[in-house]
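Why show two proteins at once? Because comparison is the fastest way to build intuition. When a single record is shown, students tend to memorize it. When two are placed side by side, the eye starts asking what differs. So, the first record is below.
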Amino acid sequence: MKIGTDGVLLGAWAPIEHNPYNVLDIGTGTGIISLMIAQRSHAEQIDAFDIDEDAYEQAVDNFENSSWNDRLFCFHAALDEFMEETSDQYDLIVSNPPFYTEDYSSGNEQRDLARFADALPFEDLAEAGGFLLSQNGIFAVILPYKEEEKFIALVRDFDLFPVKITRVKGTPTSEIKRSLLAFSKHHVENFPIDELVIEISRHNYTPEYINLTKDFYLKM
């Protein structure tokens, strides 16, 4: 599985100012977001899981070969299975869920499972955030911008409220494509909303994107 910009964005952006003790990565894929949180924070326990066996095995390999292997734990499970098994609540929950909601099959079932929203419905993700988040925790996701309003309404049903939003554009003239959303169990008035542009031109990255992600790239 390739590492995409979405995972890098969420791994670099997810709020850690509240010094999370434990972290959960829902649908970890390669494990990139968990690895970035391990690099950024002093979290003692970073749990991750994925329903796809190949993704799970790749994440395990990546965790074991990292400098933070004593803090990273990966499980092969679906979301409902994980929720049934765990008794933990987490100070930080992160997820880069499958985005595509159109009825479509590429002919590759494994690829479809990783990429399409029936593998992890937003409703299930919202419920998991409400159920698994600690009282003072943060739940952070990256979604298509067109899904932002819907997801904010979904998590409100589980008493989660936005505390930070960053909307992402590929270039200064392109449309907003992604929303980075952070939620908590506490209602916050006048929370920060800002915009991030990734590139000025092809491979000519903006100072804001460089500042956000430079600690994670070998060349930036």
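Second record. Ask yourself what differs from the first in the token line.
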Amino acid sequence: MVELKTDTSIDAMYAAGQVVGQALTAVRKAADVGVSLLELDEAAREVLRAAGATSPFLGYRPSFAPVPFPAVICASVNDAIVHGIPTGYRLRDGDLVSIDCGAELDGWVGDSAISFTVGRARPADVRLIETAERALAAGIEAAVVGNRIGDIAHAIGSVCRAAGYGIPDGFGGHGVGRRMHEDPAVPNEGRPGRGLPLRHGMVLAIEPMLTASGRDGYHAAPDGWTLRTNDGSRAAHTEHTVAITEAGPRILTAR
């Protein structure tokens, strides 16, 4: 069931989204060669604490997970696509890092992700990240009243495929509100004009995930959470929480 949010609720979600944006900014600022993923997680925790917010990630345990998620960010490095668990791994020159973060404030959730490089960036990684950002922008542009979920999916997928990148099958965006994952699902590839009609008050987490090799295959790492490319190619992940309004898409996690 898809819950339509009131304008007042969307404003409250904007407040939660701004905490997420601040946390991601803090993580990006802290990320450098030699910094551990656990230190990045702590940077995000400090922002949440200061805002009086909690993490919808910490302790989250969907049916596929062997253990509850132990952190407030997902930190996915190089061939990790999404859901990476922060560890003592210290960032190295040229690493490609994707950080996903959420915040719950006054009962409402914001969810967003960024990808960036540490140290000297590989040109191929820069292109991959730029394409992920363009795919996200295209998906947001399609998130208007009167369109359908398939229009968002088609916009994202068209950008990714035209650039020669892969799209992990079965993973994409979702509704968000009182809970981190709500209906509807928002695929990263699909046919335009299909799927649920977009209405004022729907709030979606739109999140392209791209693999550099152009192949869509992935597997779960031994930790049961991290998804990695099958061929070891690098991946990028971007995300915003977006409200569908009569005035156009409103990005609630803008940084």
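One difference worth noting in the second protein: The domain at 7-251 is CATH 3.90.230.10 (Creatine Amidinohydrolase).
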